[in-house]
Each structure stands twice: as C-alpha cells, then as structure tokens.
Amino acid sequence: MIRSLxxxxxxxxxxxxxxxxxxxxxxxxxxxxxxxxELQDSILLQVGTIAGHIRVPEPTPASGNLEPEAQAxxxxxxxxxxxxxxxxxxxxxxxxxxxxxAWRLLIRTRPDGSRVLIGQPIHIRDTIAGKSALHxxxxxxxxxxxxxxxxxxVVRRTFRPMAQLAARLDARQADDLQIxxxxxxxxxxxPFIVSINHLLERVQTLIDQQRRFIADAAHELRTPxxxxxxxAENLSQVELPPDSxxxxxxxxxxxxxxxxxxxxxxxxxxxxxxxAPEAPVTSLDECTKEIVADLLPRAAERGIDLGFELVEPxxxxxxxxxxxxxxxxxxxxxxxxxxxxGRIDIGxxxxxxxxxxxxxxxGPGISPADHKRVFEPFVRGNxxxxxxxxxxxxxxxxxxxxxxxxxxxxxxxxxxLRAIVSLPVPTL
Length: 428
Description:
- There is one protein chain.
- The chain is of the alpha+beta class and 428 residues long.
- It folds into 3 domains: 5-147, no CATH class; 187-270, Signal transduction histidine kinase, dimerisation/phosphotransfer (DHp) domain (Helix Hairpins, Orthogonal Bundle), CATH 1.10.287; 276-424, Heat Shock Protein 90 (2-Layer Sandwich), CATH 3.30.565.10.
- Helix content is 54%, strand content 18%.
- It is built from 9 helices and 12 strands.
- The protein has helices at residues 5-51, 83-86, 122-171, 190-235, 242-272, 284-301, 320-337, 368-371, 392-402; strands spanning 60-62, 72-76, 92-98, 101-109, 115-121, 281-283, 305-311, 315-317, 343-351, 354-361, 406-412, 416-424.
- The strands form 3 sheets. It has a 5-stranded antiparallel beta sheet. It has a 5-stranded mixed beta sheet with strand order 7-9-10-12-11, with helices on one face.
- The protein is rod-shaped.
- It starts with a helix and ends with a strand.
C-alpha cells in the first residue's frame, strides 16, 4: 500500500493518462484506418472515371508513380476469367473473392455497353491503411511517456511548498515555537498551518507555565538554601572531629551547588520572559575584562592560562548584567572542561557590522551526538563537568537571541572548543 500522497497522485494520474492514451490511440487508429480505406475507394472511383472512356486491350496495372503495393489492376469485364460471376454485379464498389484472395473492385459500364473493372487486393489496401493509421498513432505513443514525466514534475513542484514547510520545521531549534507564516504558501495548506500554529501556541502556554513554576520554586527555595549555607559556614568555625568536618564540607559544597543551580534557574526564567525595552549601549571589552579578573584566581588554582589573545574597544547594545552573564557562563564552562595546565584564549573584536566575543579552550570539545542539544536546558552532554547545572549555555543562547545575535560552538582540531558570540554593532 502506497502511503505517500505524492506517490498515489503520480500513480493515479499516470494510470489515467495511459488508459486514456490507449483508448484514444485505438480510436485514432480505427478512424485513420477507415479514412485511408475511403481514400483508396476514392482513388478507385477516379481511375474508374478515366477507364470508363477508354478501351483496355489487356489487364493493365494503374501504377503511375505509385508504390508497387499501391497499384490497381484495370481490365475489361469480358476478358476476366470470372466474368460470369462478376457480370451479375451492378456498377459500383464491391468486395469479392478472386483466385482465393479478397479484392476490392469497381465496375463501370461504358455508353457502348461494355464494362470495365478496376481492382486492388484487400491485403494491399489494408497494409496501406495500416501504415497510414500507424503514422497517426506514433506521435501519441511518443507523447505518453513525455506526459508521464511532465505529470511527475508538476506533482513534485506542487508538493514542494509542503516539503519546504517540513524542512523549515525540521531546521528549527527545539525551543523555537514561533508561529509559521501563511504568506507565500498555497491556500490548501493554510488550514494545516493554522492548526500547527494553534498547537505551537498551546505548547508555548504550557512552557510558560512551567517556566513560571520553576522560577517561583527557585525563588522560594533560595532563602532556605542561603540560610542553610550561612549556618554551615558558621558551623565550620567550630572545632569538630575529622569525620564531622568532612561531612560538613560535603554539606557546604552541596549547598553551594544548589544555590548556584537556583541562581541559574532564576536567570533562565528572567531571560525567557518577553522582550525587554531597548537596552543601553555597553562596552563589551570592559565587561569581559571584569569577568576575567574575577575568574583569574580560580584559573590560577588549576594552572590554567586564562587571558586575552585579542581585545579591542567595542560597544554593543545590551544590559551590563546580561552581557556579564554571557561572558561569565562561557568562561565558566571553559574552566570546568579545561584540564589542569590548559589554556583559555579570549578575543573581543569587531569585523564589519558585527562584534565578536570568542573563547577558545583546550578541553575535550563536544561530541557530535551532543552538538545539536547542547543549548537545551539541563543537557550536560557525555562529558559533564563537576558542579555544572546544564543551564549555562541555555542562558547564553537566550540572552544572545534577545540581543539579536547568534552563538556558535565548534570543535577545534587537536585544541578543544571554540565559542563564538556575534552581536550587531549598535546604531548611535
């Protein structure tokens, strides 16, 4: 069973064309055959008109410039071997059997009473008519395959908007729920597209409810977690047995990771809510320098060379806190995945009408299986870093998209991972 609508349409149209073509060919062949027979009868009548005014001394083929198979025989009826049988026939066209062969004869009576016959074997006439009819059908036989090819092309072009729509949906990110435009699409697809848009709106509503729930839950949990962290920090000042001090250290680390996760959840929820008003112009290079200065002690603890490879004074349009979150999350991600003694190079520069922030590390990079999902929330990949939440890159993507920019992660051969953020140059 063919499940493809396009395939079923092609097969149906092809079958219709073939059946119609066969029927039309048969009708055309029969019509052309009969026309050729009538034309040959007309020729016999013309020859008979001429032979009716002259005497034929012996059977004579009326050949002229005709092909041998198109020749006609002219003879006096009185000289015909079967004159007794033919003599009873009236003037006109007759189909008779002569010498075990079917003939088409024309008999004419002259004014003096003598009679003449003009004849042609039926098989010769049928051969001529068949060739003539075949010449009529041949163009139709050649046209049928061309029509089938044209049908396939037309059907494919007709279904192309549907294929393009499916390709656009497949190319979307998992969190891209923008409605599909109706402009430029066939009217037959509009009900289908409208239904998809309604589904996307319902999904967006559910996601918004989920985000609000996560933001509310994170906000409610933040206060007790902070209080617990403070109490644990105060307890660390007290003299404790070695076992208790180890458990207290684990408690403090767990509280810190939970607090970091809650901060990331709140940041993600904040950047997911609507579109902010036009942001101020901020110096991206100064913002990056401040973040690098804050993270230098952490890099030094692990012997990681963290520094600038290229830095230019550039401006972008965005809240300083948003830009700081982008830079911090990208460098923090690089620090978590770069092994001890590694290197992280940072570049801030302008190229044409775009400002670039580039961070390249010497970590393991991203596996091909994780490359498409790395910007989704809580996706940590096959090589998760200790203390990571799986939200940093998702936050970066949200912020960069709100700033009308783009972020790309690419593996560097024998080097690590390169993160490139592109933001438009602001109009002042």
